[in-house]
Amino acid sequence: MTDTSPSIGPATYYMVEMDYPHETAAERDAFDAFYQRHIDMLLTIPGFMTAQRFHCPEATKAPFLALYRLAGPEVMTGEAYTSKAGRMSVDPDFRVNMTNWDRNLAQGPAVAPGQPPEPDLTVEMGGAMTLIDRLTNSAPPLPAVFTPLEIVGLDCSVVQRGAVTGEGGEPAAADGWEIRVWRPIHPVRLGG
Length: 192
Hints:
The protein is an alpha+beta fold. The chain has a single domain, classed as 2-Layer Sandwich (Alpha-Beta Plaits). The chain is built from three helices and nine strands, in the order βαββααββββββ. An eight-stranded antiparallel β-barrel has the order 1-3-2-8-5-7-6-4. The longest helix is centred in the N-terminal third of the chain and has 18 residues. The N terminus is likely disordered.
């Protein structure tokens, strides 16, 4: 018997990395409060399914990551997104201090009909997600335990990204890789 279930596309993620240099706890609290409001706005856009922010203190270039699961890459070019979101939608008081700001649109592998899209990058509080970025085409392939995420749009600041959730996912470093272990700042939030 042939499976006639509708095909579900691969999991699509909008991944925003940045630094927000701050000198006091009050500045960090103000940034976190702003970002919560920003997430509130993004989750009203059709196709924004989930949002979760992460911190990686060892990442000197961009220690903050916002991870949004999307219904598909077309969400980023739709009127609902372009009319109220994007780099220029960020409050200018905060935008001026955001540095090393990269936005990548990534997709997981194709899935068989009737199967859920993978990977699910939701991380419980206290948990971790490890990302490996292949910085060049000549970088070694991702370790088998990492789910490959193909970069399909926006800044395309890396060639390929690999993801694994849970502890102990950090492999030995290799030339051409950037490896970071991310910890959630807040629980995953669901879109409306």
